[in-house]
Amino acid sequence: MMKKVLFSIVMLIAPFVIFHAKAQIQNIGNSDFFDSVVNNHDQKFQMSCIPSAVEMILKYYKVVDFDFYDLQNEWQNKTDGSFRDFDNKELYGITFSQKFVLPRDENFPIDSLFQTIENELKTGKKVIISLPSDTGWHMFVICKQTPDGEFVAYSKLGSHTLILNNTKEIVKKSNGTEIMTYRTPPRLY
């Protein structure tokens, strides 16, 4: 009798375990891999959102492991940091570039900013963006564009995942912002 009960429990649980394992394998092999990167990443320090975003890009391209936090550990709570710290900097074959370093006012070329982001996304890349938050500015990684044209951006706050579905609206209210794009060697595509 005990063997039949045990066999029944195994038969009930097995499909769920197999389904879960297949889902994880499928995420690794397709565009949802960025979700895996975000879900397995943490922002280690209160002020380390810039290197945290850069680390997510490096992890996305698999040039570092999921346990890589060297950039944040070096940065820690640096208060005078900006995208400038990574401008034209090559890390593990990926070269980062700061863009749209302009006054945030009525003359900011928001349409050009949005077109640049859209062009990067169309090539399969992500875009790091600075967005206003309660404490100043926080960095997000734009990973995709919705059918209605909005940008979806992810970030971390400690181990908590932040997801924005109204990035364009936030940028418009801020009168613009900076972004960081990157170049990869052909082997990483």
Structure description:
The protein is of the alpha+beta class and 189 residues long. The chain contains six helices and seven strands. Strands 1-2-7-3-4-5-6 form a seven-stranded antiparallel β-sheet, with helices on both faces.
Instruction: Provide the CATH topology.
Output: Cathepsin B, Chain A
Termini Cα gap: 56 Å
Number of helices: 6
Mass-distribution shape:
globular
Oligomer: single chain
Output the helix-strand order: HHHHEEHEEEEHE
Portion in helices? 25-40%
- CATH homologous superfamily annotation: Phytochelatin synthase, N-terminal domain
* Residue runs with pLDDT of under 50 for 5 or more positions: 2-30
Largest sheet, strands/sense/barrel: 7 strands, antiparallel
Main sheet strand line-up: 1-2-7-3-4-5-6
Tell me the total number of β-strands: 7
CATH class: Alpha Beta
How big a fraction of the residues is strand?
15-25%
Our Rg estimate from Cα atoms comes to 20 Å
